[in-house]
Amino acid sequence: MSVISLRRNVTVGVALGMLLVPGCHAADTSMPYAEAIQFAPEDLGGLNTRTVSVESEDSTVSYSYPILGESHPLSAYVRTAMAERQTAFLENLPDRGDPELVQTTSLLAASDDVVGVRMSVTDSTKASDRPGSSTLWYDARTEQVMPWTSLFHDEQALAQAHLALADVLREDYDMAPEQLPGLVGEVSAKAEESDGELVPAAASDPATDPEEGEGTGEGELPLGDADLTDPEQAMEAAERWSASPLADLAFSTAGGLAVRMDPAQIPGTGRAEEALIPIEAEETEESLSELGYRARDAAVNGNSVPAERVAETTGDTEGRTLDCAEAKCVALTFDDGPGEYTEELLDTLAEYDAQATFYVLGSLVEEFPEIAERTAAKGHEVGSHTWKHDDLTSLSGDGVREDMERTSEAIEKATGKAPRTMRPPYGSHNSTVSDALGQPIILWDVDTMDWQSRDTDAIIDHAVSEVDTGSVVLFHDIHKSTVDAIPDILKELHSQGYHFVSVENLFADGQLSEGEAYTDARLE
């Protein structure tokens, strides 16, 4: 059985910083003050924030996050985490009230080496009206997204940081041991009881359960012996320690840690919105991991656009990638345009932050290049549907290649980007077509039959009843009845927690092969 020593050899003397609600007076001038490093992406001069709000009759969901690039791992991780939380929220709405979910992110550090973000969540359906917050750190050297626990070299160091925080609360705020909140009090009490010797949870019999934010139950700490340099083990440790105030830590301008806490737990904070408790740099020197040192350097000395690691981004076209192996995704696809109703459809899709895929005819793109350009500028995928809707199986291999090249050139000229996927008219393809194509063939698993019925209600019913996670849904935006159906389809599928993505986004990286046909990405 392994034993971890947590004897404290130093006295921690730090400052307390307070963030006050609007209209409050400044904190007592006798109160020490420190400042956490946090800033908006726009402050860097090369990054933007994407902000989305979707209001429906039943709820309001909104989120914002820094646009770090279409394929940046941190963008995908943050966006997917928000999508999963939004789905859970929408699937479990209460019967009454005006439920609202607000998710925001802010930057804590940015350099070529490390990017740190703080994610905050306010859920009106939860008992607490305080946002839940935690931090994530992208390590450019390993290209891994790491939780806050990875800033410490092991769980012994993590527990030591809790003891340092306990010392601050006792010494600067005269808090008695029994007043120390949550895990801070538990770690401190265990250290006192055992004269600084604590047994990791992994070596103990009782199970731990920090789920409710009250420590681990049965007097057991979440202390384990995880390798915090390993993303999976660090994430598991973050779950065990999820009730810790250190989950919402940043670096202070002085190079120490700045820990946000509920002011209701801290005597003397008055009407502060949150208590910001910094720990001096020298008190964390032996606790930080190698990543922790680099993250601190990025926060204190970096704060510039990480040009080598973050893609240059503009407008709505980047930073919206979801991991559809984790999120509840569906791809809405529209054939035969662009047409007279396409721009109305683009406006409707924007109301739900919905990405779609448009399989366009090259002849119409040549006739209406401005519509194709706007479609791509709004972040939608523009794919090939041949030049003028010929059945490709009636052509030779050279004929197929000529048709596809002509269509691709028209799309690239209008949008600035060559199509990466294609859909054959009527879904018709054979070995000659497959061999001649330079793109994956995207078919569908949900055919709304909109081209046949031209009935808005029938289109709505068919789409909503047949869709599942990973579906590819076929529509035609050349029909007014279809475009009229989309608002209700988006509304209903949104309420079920679906996220609307492009075909490229729906399928995982490397999953699509040239000449191969795909109907869906359902997870079975």
From TrEMBL:
Query: What broad class of enzyme is this?
Result: hydrolase
One matching Pfam family: Polysacc_deac_1
- Print the keywords alphabetically: Hydrolase, Metal-binding, Signal
- Extract the signal peptide range: 1-26
Top-level taxon of origin: Bacteria
List residues of the NodB homology domain: 328-501
Question: In Gene Ontology terms, what is one molecular function of this protein?
Answer: hydrolase activity
- By its UniProt entry, which InterPro entries does this protein fall under? Glyco_hydro/deAcase_b/a-brl, NODB_dom, Polysacc_deacetylase_ArnD
Q: What is its EC number?
A: 3.-.-.-
Q: Where is this region: Disordered?
A: 188-227
The name on file for this protein is: Polysaccharide deacetylase family protein
- Species for this entry: Nocardiopsis alba
Task: Supply the source organism's classification.
Answer: Bacteria, Bacillati, Actinomycetota, Actinomycetes, Streptosporangiales
